[in-house]
TrEMBL record:
Record flagged with keyword Endoplasmic reticulum: no
Source organism: Entomortierella chlamydospora
Record key words, sorted: FAD, Flavoprotein, Oxidoreductase
Name used for this protein in its record: FAD-binding domain-containing protein
GO MF annotation: an example: monooxygenase activity
């Protein structure tokens, strides 16, 4: 994959209008925000707590909710080179008996006609590498774990564990579910009596997930990896707290994950041992699941074909925080809304945050404290209602795909066997009508017949276009 950086990173501007942005966290949301800020010549620096990039393994999918924005940035065509269209989503029982076969956008002609985009499935590290290739390496500073923050009328500051401090006009916490920026911000607000009571509570917990990417697999032995479309299976165990998935992606790779539903005592114990995505000791879980079946054999076959340092374990938590911004500080992605991965919308919503935040920064009139605070409030007002809907959807999807309680089994049977296809299609198209784009770039071509939800236009961009038209 070619490495493409801007010809020259934008310098820090002291005109009183262009902010210097500090992005904490080099995840998907942080990288996409950086790419967007480059397009409007806003200077930024990224501060990452780890010593190097360790993208999580496993599969990831993107759809019409974010693909138009990637198309604006010239990333969509490159994404398609490392992705497969996903036509169906197959749900099976633990003995590999079909429960349901759901046609996704590419496999449902009526839905595709309305939406105009297919679902694209790929290995998460491949997409991460694509975004990383668009960010100048000198803009990312590693081993910078944020210990505290401060902001006032003059600007924002972070203090890192190595004793260094950095200053800017806007501080963006894109540092995940256990965000150091959020924890520091909430401590400041709590001391001043400004933090809402719900934000003092811990994230909800209930599942643990082990994830990896196996391969390359031998196409003669496993012919499904040669299929030009993704083979996607969700398998729900019987008499076990486990569910697991199998997804083929380009380059003869197979992405897999194993989700275990936990009891309350077990959840509390696991919470302290699994605070973030990353390599973990997975031996106990692996021993329990090795013989579980997948379309090409067993989970053990996939695990054995996966590099050990490419297997990660995470405690699945979820929470929608009320406080996303205060003063010069703003949170995006998992730092302010941690969604369960069941609906595949966590990364999508994080990247949508980056798009809308970049739009709000573009509209800034000055770097004065009041103007910055107003722009960050506007960001939350635009995003919160949409995230709230997706948060609820992720909880419902988790019940359907991971749930092992009596109620969840009944719910799954009713939804998968008795819900009319027309209702499923209507729900799908409604969710995909929300497609935020960068307001400061030419809009991506409209695809599909669906009426897309309009977004807040850019007055600045309109004035710029009108001025350019007059000067011609």
């Amino acid at each position: 994959m070619a490495t493409i950086y801007p010809s020259q990173p934008p310098p820090i501007c002291l005109d009183g209008k262009t902010p210097h942005v500090m992005i904490v966290g080099a995840g998907l949301a942080g990288l996409l925000l950086a790419i967007l800020l480059d397009r409007i010549n806003v200077p930024y620096e990224i501060y990452e707590r780890s010593d190097k990039v360790r993208p999580l393994g496993g599969a990831m999918s993107l759809n019409a909710n974010i693909l138009p924005a990637l198309e604006q940035l010239g990333l969509f065509e490159d994404l398609k080179k490392v992705a497969y269209p996903s036509l169906t989503f197959n749900i099976y029982s633990g003995n590999m008996e079909k429960i349901e076969k759901i046609a996704t956008l590419g496999g449902d002609d009526k839905a595709f006609e309305a939406i105009g985009y297919e679902n694209h499935l790929f290995s998460r590290p491949k997409f991460y590498a694509l975004l990383l290739s668009r960010v100048p390496p000198e803009r990312i500073h590693y081993k910078k774990k944020v210990m505290s923050i401060a902001h006032n009328r003059e600007g924002a500051m972070i203090r890192c564990s190595d004793g260094t401090t950095y200053h800017g006009d806007i501080l963006v916490g894109a540092d995940g579910a256990h965000s150091g920026v959020r924890q520091s911000l909430y401590k400041l607000m709590q001391n001043d009596g400004l933090l809402p009571e719900p934000d003092t509570k811990a994230l909800s917990k209930g599942y643990i997930c082990t994830v990896g990417t196996a391969g390359p697999m031998d196409p003669e032995k496993y012919p499904c990896v040669n299929d030009p479309t993704a083979s996607s299976y969700q398998i729900i165990g019987e008499g076990t707290p486990y569910s697991w998935s199998f997804m083929s992606v380009p380059n003869n790779l197979v992405c897999w994950n194993i989700v275990k539903q936990l009891g309350s005592c077990e959840s509390e114990d696991e919470r302290f041992r699994n605070s973030e995505w990353g390599p973990e000791s997975n031996e106990a879980m692996i021993k329990e699941v090795r013989d579980f079946r997948v379309p090409i054999g067993t989970l053990g076959d996939l695990i054995d074909a996966t590099p050990k340092d490419g297997i990660s374990r995470v405690f699945l938590e979820d929470k929608l925080f009320e406080t996303w911004n205060h003063g010069r500080t703003v949170l995006i992605g998992d730092a302010c809304h941690k969604l369960l991965p069941s609906s595949g919308q966590g990364a999508v919503n994080a990247m949508q945050d980056a798009v809308i935040l970049a739009n709000c920064i573009y509209e800034l009139r000055s770097v004065a404290e009041n103007d910055v605070a107003e722009a960050l409030r506007d960001f939350k007002e635009q995003r919160y209602p949409h995230v709230k809907d997706q948060y609820r959807a992720s909880q419902m999807s988790a019940k359907l795909l991971y749930g092992q309680t009596f109620f969840e089994k009944i719910l799954r049977k009713v939804v998968l066997n008795y819900m009319p296809k027309s209702i499923q299609r209507k729900s799908m198209t409604k969710d995909l009508a929300y497609r935020p784009q960068a307001s400061f770039l030419p809009q991506a071509p409209k695809r599909g017949t669906l009426n897309v939800i309009s977004q807040k236009p850019s007055k600045r961009y309109q004035e710029k276009q009108e001025l350019a038209a007059v000067s011609i």
